[in-house]
Amino acid sequence: MSVDRRTVLKSSAAVAAAGPFAGLVAAPAEARKAPLAAGLVPVPDERDGAVRLHLPRGFRYRSFHDTTQTVTLTDGTLLPGRHDGMGAFEGPGSTVLLVRNHEVNNPTPAFGPGVPYDSQGGGGTTTIQVTKKGNVIRSFTSLNGTMMNCSGGQMPWGSWVTCEETVNGPDVGPDFTGRSNVPLTQRHGYIFEVPVSRFPGEGQSSRQPIRNAGRFAHEAVSFDPVNGHLYLTEDNFGFASGFYRYTPPSDPMEVGRLEDGGVLEMLRVVGLPNAHLEAEQLDDTVYDVDWVVIANPDVAYPYTPGVTAPTPNDTAIVHVGSQGWLLGAAHFSRLEGQVYDDGIVYFTATQGGGAAETGTQAGGTPGYGNGSGQVWAYDIAAQTLRVVFQSPGPMTLDLPDNITTSPQGTLVVCEDSSGDNYLRGLSPDGEIWDIALNRLRSAAGAPRFGEEFAGSTFSPDGHTLFVNIQASAGLTFAIWGPWESIGA
User: Is-contact 281 353, C-beta < 8 A?
Assistant: First the structure.
């Protein structure tokens, strides 16, 4: 979930506590006492000795690219903050190359050098060469001119695919922020590939969108190297979300890149059209699923340059999903993080697991879905879907977002709560425990509650977990320690 969106909704709730956004007003911090947190202890940051995280005993960490102060990258880029999804790749000399999203919304001048996709798109990606203990060697802009780069996914041929969680553009009216899209020069709502290179001066995105992968509120992707499908999640906050797959015209494992011009499909439950999977699920339920083709994955609406577009944002944001619903595609609640692991695609439904919605649009609860979150597993070979974990309430797991797997197969789940935020460990059979607790504080010493973990990713050798805090004053952590002692 975007911090931009949550901030707007919190402000709305503060003005009208009885309105539709009232549920997003954070409870007092003391009210959220997670019973799983007993094994975590305060640990000082090796950068400056401040305590920013609580971790299991024996773990250490270092933060970097902390945008509470101005950060200038090696190429002169002023780092924009709002660090979000991230991938880790092998770098030269035992270093790690990180490709990191920046989820910046609203028309604003593009950051970084080079020709951006849209001169008024403030999001994108930066690439960082770093040691496994969080010392930065070099860093640069690798994609600019995009918007709301939320999550994405690491590709096995050596690329990061980043996702725009928006359908903004000069042809679409204002989104949830109310800001005009007139200044934008390009349509948004796409995925972009960012290659990774061990050599300075390389690793630049072509800045060309993969349009046939759809124009919708993209969140994350993962790739099945056996069958050649790219899986995509959708975080459509006010409407039902879909789970998709994109089949490119050529196998990326052979051509070394993701090509446009392929086929987009949406998941459907066999024998249960428009299944309400955002609703609470019974234990051990397994669904047989198939896929329906999205005939028109991209759309460009008519508009007059310099004049507010006549097409509402709510119309554009369901352009893809509504095609699937007409063919019986399933309804999910806010699909966010996902990861491929040994033939299984795991993905999170951030507000899944509560009372069912009555249609495709959110009811009285802010956002589509009334639960505390679900983690799903799609078995590619069997074409089945099951719930790995369904949160019984926010004390156990509160709004799961980004997700990754450890070298041992443990799922690492980032929370996106309005109160305390944890990194949780989750076994594939549903056992859950704590890995980290965010304990950032403002310059005045106040706790920075409501700032989510994002972009969790392990170094290729499994030594270090890199993770971001997605906030206006974002930063990245490198965490290391005896992972085997906590089942990770």
Answer: yes
Domain that holds residue 195: 3-16+38-486
Distance (Å, whole) CA 215 – CA 299: 7
List the one residue out of 436, 439, 448 whose CA is nearest residue 472. Answer: 448
For residue 24, tell me if it sits in a domain: no
Domain count, the chain: 1
Please indicate, yes or no, if residue 444 is contained in any of the structural domains: yes
DSSP track, 70-85: --B-TTS-B----EEE
The CB-side HSE value for 393 (13 A sphere, CA atoms) comes to 6
Q: For 222, list phi and psi in degrees, rounded to 5.
A: -150, 155
Instruction: Give the span between the Cα atoms of 412 and 488, in whole angstroms.
Output: 8
Q: Taking the CA of residue 106 as centre, how many other CA atoms within 13 Å lie in the half-sphere pointing to its CB? A: 10
Give the pLDDT confidence score for residue 200 in this predicted structure: 73
- The answer to whether residues 379 and 428 touch, using CB atoms and an 8 Å cutoff, is no
Q: Which residues of the chain have pLDDT under 70?
A: 1-38
Give CA–CA dist 304/89, Å, rounded: 43
Residue 311, classed as helix, strand or coil, is coil
Give strand ranges (E) for 91-217: 96-102, 123-130, 136-146, 149-155, 159-164, 191-195
| pLDDT tens sequence across 56-89 | 999 999 999 999 999 999 999 999 999 999 999 9
Residue 79 in domain: yes
Of all helices (H) and strands (E), which one includes residue 466? Answer: strand 464-470
Cα separation, 439 vs 251, in Å, equals 44
* pLDDT value of residue 38: 53
Q: Flag whether 388 is in a domain.
A: yes
Provide the β-strand partners of residue 347: 338, 376
pLDDT tens, residue by residue, 255-296: 999 999 999 999 999 999 999 999 999 988 999 999 999 999
Which CATH number characterizes residue 447's domain?
A: 2.120.10.30
Distance CA 170, CA 329 (A): 29
Produce one character per residue of 111-147: b if its CB has 16 or more CB atoms within 10 Å, e if not: bbebebbbebbbbbbbbbbbbbebebeebbbbbbbbb
Place of tokens 């789940």: 413
Q: What is the pLDDT of residue 488?
A: 84
Which residue carries 């000795």 as its tokens?
49
Q: Residue 201, exposed/middle/buried by CB under 10 A (0-12, 13-18, 19+)?
A: exposed
Comparing CA positions, the residue from 411, 366, 75, 360 lying closest to residue 242 is: 360
